[in-house]
Amino acid sequence: MIADHLVTALETITGPAGIKTSEALRAIHPGSDPHNLDAGLMVLPKNVEQVSAIVKLCNDNRIAIVPHGGRTGLAGGAVSRKDEIILSLAALNRIESVEAAAETAIVECGVTLQALQEEAAKVNLTTGIDIPSRGSATIGGMISTNAGGMEAFRLGVMRQRVLGLEVVLPDGSIMSDLAEVTKSNEGYDLKQLFIGAEGTLGIVTRAVIRLTPADTFTATALVACPSAIAAVSLFQALRHDRSLRLLRTEIMGERYFRVAVEALGPASLAAFTEAPIYLIVETEGLDQQGAQSALENALGAAIENELVLDAIIAQSGKERNDIWNIREDSNVITRAYPNGYWFDISVPLQHLDAYIRQFDGGVASLGADVRGFAFGHLGDGNLHICVAGENGNPDKDAVKAVVYANIRQMGGSFSAEHGIGLEKMPELHALVDPVKLALMRTIKRTIDPNNIMNPGKVVS
Amino acid sequence: MIADHLVTALETITGPAGIKTSEALRAIHPGSDPHNLDAGLMVLPKNVEQVSAIVKLCNDNRIAIVPHGGRTGLAGGAVSRKDEIILSLAALNRIESVEAAAETAIVECGVTLQALQEEAAKVNLTTGIDIPSRGSATIGGMISTNAGGMEAFRLGVMRQRVLGLEVVLPDGSIMSDLAEVTKSNEGYDLKQLFIGAEGTLGIVTRAVIRLTPADTFTATALVACPSAIAAVSLFQALRHDRSLRLLRTEIMGERYFRVAVEALGPASLAAFTEAPIYLIVETEGLDQQGAQSALENALGAAIENELVLDAIIAQSGKERNDIWNIREDSNVITRAYPNGYWFDISVPLQHLDAYIRQFDGGVASLGADVRGFAFGHLGDGNLHICVAGENGNPDKDAVKAVVYANIRQMGGSFSAEHGIGLEKMPELHALVDPVKLALMRTIKRTIDPNNIMNPGKVVS
């Protein structure tokens, strides 16, 4: 536990409303991990100066800090322990500006993705990054985990959306690099170190975000493909089809699709053609009619070319939502298999079919009652995977051996978009280039010599 | 000079063909800076193992290394001195793979941009980054300077085109992070440190580059705008116009345009409507006819809305080349004013008009015979600027005060896309956040404790 005089010192910085313990803390939802609030003490600064003062106090007194955004992270990066403090950035929630022509926004890090999307929409812009947890996930958290989502294949991951950054370093100093321009080469681009560092090198407090023109007229289809090879060929064809703009291509393996559609409905989609691979394809056109007909033509040609078995194009907002719900409510798998092992990998598209075949074969070899579910973002080759047994889980290491087999040789990643946190540390130590790992440790010791920033996460 | 036994040791690594001195070196073009080859000794490794051995030898013997790509850099980053060696990556010039569906290429760092563009074109892809020096500039050099170019507003700068990187660190170890996927979060993204570091932290030897679908049917226009505000509004309108895809929007101030068009011709363009701001707008359409008519419609509407005074749409490849030549042969200014001072700034679009007004006023205040020329990339607010006197140059510090006035307050950058090298070091020290600058120095000392990597550039 943190000594009383230090709690008093923290309260002097934030005021009484900025300290939450016991009852007040128990009223807060712990988020994705039940241990996120275990520290029992949350500090809520209102501005960067307060963040700086808190971090300095903690550094001087060797108190470990666990930064919190929206607590939607899936790798345990926000888990806290008794001798630590939680530094919640929730009160830094101002959208400071949105520039329509420059396509930029300046935000404090506690702003949620959805709040920024809504503000940007007022000038016909959007964030260019979208994830299902948009209502809770904060820009600071998304920067710290380098979030990915559904549009990364064309607009990049969070790292590509950040133009400028303000960071509080572990000694309390404030590094300000708030350029609002795409082109700025002013020495080493140090802000990149803090993007994806999961709060282990400093605290992101403010950012300049690159926005992009909003999609106005979109068409959405559920597509059944005969194979992953066909799905990749369809993706390639749509990327080169100038009659439409490809916005999103989500992928679902047959097993995922069946569990999801049977749990979530509607019956019309549950009755859809059987296939090994399903896609949700979303495209944009010049107007609503043009968007629908361009997608219809493209999918018609793909059926001719045997890349597609069948397709349903949403004819209403409800039909669109029904299709998206199958993909976005992926908790449907957790509800069916609460103890399943989860993974978050990516493989280059030229290897996606081989990876899926290898995965299906590997899961079968784990036991007749073992199930593998895969879904994710086709354009990035990013699959979210759950492996679970109908009668108790198989050995976790055996499962990992299946999921990670050849992932390096294929040029893929064992950690696509959820980060390392606590959960992926064994993989990091086993699979990352040792020269890179050694340099990571050196950088951590150099920037955070007292190891106060989210200790025990990412590097050890 | 390097001691003979060390030259022998270097020759043992590369073989005799890998060492160039005296006559052999004088046969090589020095590139953008006459002092690039001053070291008098160039080593040309053939593969990463040779690079590693050379760097280790140099580190053990405290020999400074100046890495060379295509020697097209504009900030003096490749300048070398007598006691240093030049490490040319020109022989690492293999394109190892191009993946059509995944839109990636794996290349050795000495591959030129144009060679990669030509290879990618075979599968209807392109690099998503383009600069006039494409025939000489290498991928490694473009990574090391974080090159920008004409498409950055929609596809990012070089940093956004790099998926994976192999780097030789100053101790000779090889850091391999050759992920071929958009989504890879495996701890700190250390490759970012080496992108834009201008060879001061290590040597980029291999990269995975993200490609993008090639533009097939394009239309090109020369546009006269009544003001920078109108030009920015036109840019905004074109970004949101779904009947076309905006590829490039280059900007030229009146004074640049006049000097260029009168020197380069043709007469038809020299007779084009007078205006304070000229643009080259390039767009893509569904087919050739569609591309032309969509641009025609968009510019017609812009004339109605008083955003455009006049426009010429190229009707042939020759007309397109004539228009582009005015912008790409910007050496026309150097030929007219060989001693002019050059700058490379960027400002957010909402401040572009204010910046240009301030610049024009500032130049006028420097003397009646002082001329300011500005041109560059409208979408990024990136201006290349030359200030020169008709009768001898004004004081350089006075010119800098004009060019850099309010650039920070506007959220812009004093160093957009050419890098720091030697030339921008005074600006770096004067204008960069001191916390960032201190951390840059710490990082340099940590990674390159013997200061052998391109010493005296970027940080000091």
TrEMBL record, chains A, B:
One of its GO terms (biological process) is respiratory electron transport chain. PROSITE patterns: FAD_PCMH. Its cofactor is FAD. Residues 35-214 form the FAD-binding PCMH-type domain. Keywords: FAD, Flavoprotein, Oxidoreductase. GO terms for molecular function: FAD binding; oxidoreductase activity. InterPro entries: FAD-bd_oxidored_4_C (IPR004113), FAD-bd_PCMH (IPR016166), FAD-bd_PCMH-like_sf (IPR036318), FAD-bd_PCMH_sub1 (IPR016167), FAD-bd_PCMH_sub2 (IPR016169), FAD-linked_Oxase-like_C (IPR016164), FAD-oxidored/transferase_4 (IPR051264), Oxid_FAD_bind_N (IPR006094). Pfam families: FAD-oxidase_C, FAD_binding_4. Belongs to the FAD-binding oxidoreductase/transferase type 4 family. This is FAD/FMN-containing dehydrogenase. It comes from Phyllobacterium myrsinacearum.
